[in-house]
UniProtKB/TrEMBL annotation:
This is Band 7 domain-containing protein. Belongs to the band 7/mec-2 family. The chain crosses the membrane at residues 87-111. Its main location: membrane. Gene3D superfamilies: 6.10.250.2090, Band 7 domain. One of its GO terms (cellular component) is plasma membrane. Residues 14-24 have a biased composition (Gly residues). It comes from Aedes aegypti. SUPFAM superfamilies: Band 7/SPFH domain. Keywords: Membrane, Transmembrane, Transmembrane helix. SMART domains: PHB. Pfam families: Band_7. It is a single-pass membrane protein. InterPro entries: Band-7_stomatin-like (IPR043202), Band_7 (IPR001107), Band_7/SPFH_dom_sf (IPR036013), Band_7/stomatin-like_CS (IPR018080), Stomatin_HflK_fam (IPR001972).
Length: 347
């Protein structure tokens, strides 16, 4: 049974139903399908088989005719919309002229130096981009406009609980400075550019901190802020947003971790202090040894040192009473003791 092929849908088979009413399809394609010629499609049913043939050239012609028809239909619809738009614009101008000068109060609008106005006429963007600053003209009933503030905005990112790369939970908050760089894109490409930028800032902060170790977060804040600024600026460029600066405000650690880090730092400081004190004692002992050698070579130097010590004591503590004792007397007693011990040893 020969069946015509519908190029936009599956083939339709009349008759050939079996007892169960169900059909199964099996498509067999010959080598002529790729390079032109005749293609055979067989459909197996419960009651028997049905097949039909068609040429690829005819199939291509049908597709081209259908595509051309759809294109003409779109052109016709665009032409009808354009014609309708022209009529509405003409009627709007007629309304402005008839209600002059009261219509001027509605048609003329003013935007500030830091603002721009994005105008939609019959739902489409008006050519020429955003208007402003200053005065601009709109048509009543068919024009709508949106004000866009170009000033830099500040967003305080709420504290984010982040698990760092070395499995430490920290709370990080930051500040993001951004502004609208393209008013038309910020209105046409995204529903709420400011809200989207803020949500992206929170997500970027969490993702960036999650790939860093704790010591990097504490010591490389400027580097992390720069990488976040580049990432946010690249992502928000399609929204007409320019991220100017990102600053990390604070990094809060758990209380237990703070105590552990404080104890570690205190132990390190005590160890350094002991090392410094030991080095000082070592240098002092070397200096005392050299001083003793100098004093041993000159007995008068010891006497002068003795008098200097007395002078120091009398200047610092006036209530102290010092009885000077000549060192020569001690030397006499020491020599007497040595001679006594020598005589007993010989006896």
């Amino acid at each position: 049974m020969m069946v015509p092929l519908d190029p936009m849908g599956p083939p339709i088979i009349n008759g050939g139903g079996g007892a169960g009413g169900g059909t199964g399809r099996n498509r067999q394609t010959g080598p002529a399908e790729a390079g032109g010629g005749i293609s055979t499609i067989s459909i197996a049913t419960v009651g028997g088989n049905a097949s039909f043939q068609r040429t690829d050239d005819e199939y291509r012609n049908v597709l081209m005719r259908n595509t051309t028809v759809r294109k003409y239909a779109e052109d016709d619809s665009n032409g009808e919309a354009s014609t309708c738009g022209r009529i509405l614009i003409f009627l709007s101008w007629v309304l402005v002229v008839l209600t002059m000068p009261f219509s001027l109060l509605v048609c003329f609008k003013v935007v500030q130096e830091y603002e721009r106005a994005v105008i939609f006429r019959l739902g489409r963007l008006v050519q020429g981009g955003a208007k402003g600053p200053g005065i601009f003209f709109i048509l009543p009933c068919i024009d709508a406009y949106a004000r866009v503030d170009l000033r830099t905005r500040t967003y305080d990112v709420p504290p984010q609980e982040v698990l760092t790369k070395d499995s430490v939970t920290v709370s990080v908050d930051a500040v993001v400075y951004y502004r609208v760089s393209n008013a038309t894109v910020s209105i046409a490409n995204v529903e709420n550019a400011h809200h989207s930028t803020r949500l992206l800032a929170q997500t970027t902060l969490r993702n960036t901190m999650g790939t860093r170790h704790l010591h990097e977060i504490l010591s490389e804040r400027m580097t992390i802020s720069g990488s976040m600024q580049l990432s946010l600026d690249e992502a928000t460029e399609a929204w007409g947003i320019k991220v100017e600066r990102v600053e990390i405000k604070d990094v809060r650690l758990p209380v237990q971790l703070q105590r552990a880090m404080a104890a570690e730092a205190e132990a390190a400081r005590e160890a350094r202090a002991k090392v410094i004190a030991a080095e000082g004692e070592q240098k002092a002992s070397r200096a005392l040894r050299e001083a003793s050698e100098v004093i041993g070579d000159s007995p008068a130097a010891l006497q002068l040192r003795y008098l200097q010590t007395l002078n120091t004591i009398s200047a610092e503590k006036n209530s102290t009473i010092v009885f000077p004792l000549p060192i020569d007397i001690l030397t006499y007693f020491m020599k007497s003791k040595e001679s006594y011990e020598a005589s007993h040893s010989h006896s």
